[in-house]
Write a structure and sequence with these properties.
With 546 residues, the protein is an alpha/beta fold. The chain has 2 domains: 10-330, Dihydroxyacetone kinase, domain 1 (Rossmann fold, 3-Layer(aba) Sandwich), CATH 3.40.50; 353-543, Serine Threonine Protein Phosphatase 5, Tetratricopeptide repeat (Alpha Horseshoe), CATH 1.25.40. Helix content is 46%, strand content 14%. The chain has 19 helices and 14 strands. The longest helix is centred in the C-terminal third of the chain and has 28 residues, at 359-386. It is elongated. The structure holds adenosine-5'-diphosphate and magnesium ion. Magnesium ion is lined by residues 383, 387-388, 390-391, 421, 517. The site of magnesium ion has 7 residues, from loops. GO terms for molecular function: ATP binding; glycerone kinase activity. Pfam families: Dak1, Dak2. One of its GO terms (cellular component) is cytosol. This is Dihydroxyacetone kinase.
Length: 546
């Protein structure tokens, strides 16, 4: 089972205490029964109350404040709050103009909110409810509860919250909320089930699978599909939405993270969605990209569209002050596809192409590209164990960028110069320096190896013993020099350098890294060969003619 720092019930109580302490200007916690109220309860407006199971943060407490909710009622993780909690929150929030409940469509929530509504009515409080049921895939199950409520809840909270702040009456707010629900649809997909505090994840996915149509309680989706690029997944998700609710301009697009999705991935999905909607002739006039309704630490996202009209858009744009309303684009969002910059051949590449490459050098680099490709995963794994894991992907990128032609060493150097990380630029420098000593005599080779290692030491600041590629570079240069001094052949010098690099690379496993990301893991990297040094040995080994 996935480990957590605290248990589920502690997480809810202590999390809410911390949240309310940090945001004391906005919210206050009532502990028994548990609910979160605006720090300064509003007067003379309809009170908006929402709630549901915990584990969906920032929903709901994150949206308590001016222009959204008056109170939020958190249950246990993935479990509805009690009717007592809901009633207490409603009575505390009521300012004499009635209470609008915003309820996600789950049986427990529906029942407890309905019971609380009855009890409040008995006490003379006017109550209306908006039931949110935007999740398209859950409708396909034809089950009695109907569609689940997800991200449209936040849209209702924002739009009705703004209207309530302007003093609109309860009946109008209920109508407005219903309009948002009618015009919203959502769909989710995940690449990993979230963990639960108390249970095993509800599903396991293979590396090549995506769970499509997931909800927000870690439950299985409607379809298990083969992994596809994010762009295609986003298109599929938009198809699902459009099949259920024909899209009409302008729309609001919400890209929601399910808890363990990086902001970069969400932005990427948003970019694809904007481009795809643009292709379909749909204007996206408002967008929000954020974790809004999560499912603990589920790795995935959901997309929501709301068909806007002038009034909905106006309420959307109204001022709001809550703990978690951030980063929203309130202005129009251009729906143009971002154009990736095209990579043009630079001077060095052009110069390299003009030079005649030696056949031996070309064969050497060809062998290297093949062998390094075969071993990229293994090297990436070494970096994962002793550093941060980007070495393999970076190496693959470099190999993929290699274009034969001209001086092969220079061409490979250009390929490495095009990738990030630490190893890329250092290898580029090393190769470019080395290019000058290939095809000469053993002395020139040894000299080139020595100069190349010096350049890397100068630029990277690593010395022998720091557990880096330098550990293989320096002994290789020394071994080649010994062959040159003994009047050996170029082939012998190449072989000696390769063998020395190989031994030295192997010995890096006994060292502790003092440079690069590997230095952050310190002792934990002991026993692991340095991937950079290993790659140098592989490279020099490819110079040995078979
Ligand atoms: P990062 O350390 O930034 O994650 P990479 O994963 O691209 O960089 O490359 C890691 C390799 O780079 C290491 O195995 C090591 O051989 C080499 N390296 C890291 N820092 C240095 C340095 N300062 N000088 C020489 N080589 C280095
Ligand atoms: Mg790395």
């Amino acid at each position: 089972m996935t480990r957590h720092l605290v248990s589920g019930s502690e997480a809810v109580n202590d999390g809410l205490r911390g949240f309310c302490a940090v945001n004391a200007d906005l919210v206050a916690l009532h502990e028994d029964p548990r609910f979160v109220l605006r720090a300064e309860p509003a007067t003379d407006k309809v009170a908006l109350v929402s709630g549901g199971g915990s584990g969906h943060e920032p929903l709901h407490a994150g949206f308590v404040g001016v222009g959204m909710l008056d109170a939020a009622v958190p249950g246990e993780v993935f479990s509805s709050p009690s009717a007592d909690q809901v009633r207490a929150a409603m009575l505390a929030a009521d300012a004499g103009r009635g209470v609008l409940q915003i309820v996600k469509n789950y049986t427990g929530d529906v029942i407890n909110f309905a019971l609380a509504a009855d009890e409040c009515r008995d006490r003379g409080v006017e109550v209306a409810s908006v039931l949110v049921d935007d999740d398209v895939p859950s409708a396909e199950r034809g089950s009695t509860p109907g569609r689940r409520g997800t991200v449209a809840t936040v849209l209702v909270e924002k739009i009705c919250g703004a209207a309530a702040e302007e003093g609109r009456p309860l009946a109008e707010l209920a109508e407005l909320g219903q309009r948002v629900v009618d015009r919203s649809r959502s769909v989710g997909a995940a690449v990993a089930a979230g963990s639960n505090f108390t249970a095993e994840p509800a599903f396991e996915l293979g590396a090549d699978e995506i769970e499509f149509g997931v909800g927000i309680h870690g439950e299985r989706g409607t379809d298990r599909i083969r992994t596809e690029p994010l762009e295609a997944l986003v298109r599929r998700m938009l198809d699902t939405l459009a099949d259920d609710l024909p899209l009409e301009s302008p729309v609001l697009l919400a890209v929601n993270g399910l808890g363990a999705t990086t902001p970069l991935e969400l932005d990427a999905a948003a970019g694809y969605a904007l481009a795809e909607l643009d292709r379909r002739g749909i204007e996206v006039s408002r967008a929000i990209v954020d974790d809004l309704v999560t499912s603990l630490d589920m790795r995935g996202l959901s997309l929501t569209v709301l068909l806007l009209d002038d009034e909905l858009q106006r309420w959307w744009d109204a001022p709001v002050q809550t703990a978690h309303w951030r980063g929203t684009r309130l202005a129009g969002v251009p729906a143009a596809q971002p154009k990736p910059a095209t990579i043009t051949a630079d001077e060095t590449t052009a110069a390299a192409a003009e030079e005649e490459g030696s056949e031996a050098a070309t064969d050497w680099i060809d062998r290297f590209v093949e062998r390094a490709g075969e071993r990229a995963d293994e090297l990436g794994e070494l970096d994962r164990q002793s550093g941060d894991g980007d070495f393999g992907p970076n190496l693959r990128t470099a190999l993929g960028r290699y274009r034969a032609g001209g001086d092969a060493f220079v061409a490979l150097s250009r390929a490495f110069a095009g990738v990030g990380g630490t190893s890329g630029p250092l290898l580029a420098l090393w190769l470019r320096t080395l290019a000058r000593g290939i095809g000469g005599d053993p002395g020139a080779y040894a000299e080139a190896l020595r100069t190349a290692a010096d350049r890397v030491r100068e630029l990277g600041g690593a010395e022998v013993g720091d557990k880096t590629m330098v550990d293989a570079m320096v002994p290789a240069a020394e071994a080649a020099q010994r062959v040159a001094d003994a009047d050996g052949s170029l082939d012998e010098a190449i072989r000696a350098a390769a063998e020395a690099a190989d031994r030295a690379a192997e010995q890096t496993s006994e060292l502790v890294a003092r440079r690069g990301r590997g230095s952050y893991v310190g002792e934990a990297g002991r026993g692991v060969v340095d991937p950079g040094a290993r790659l140098i040995a592989i490279f020099l080994g490819c110079g040995v003619r078979p």
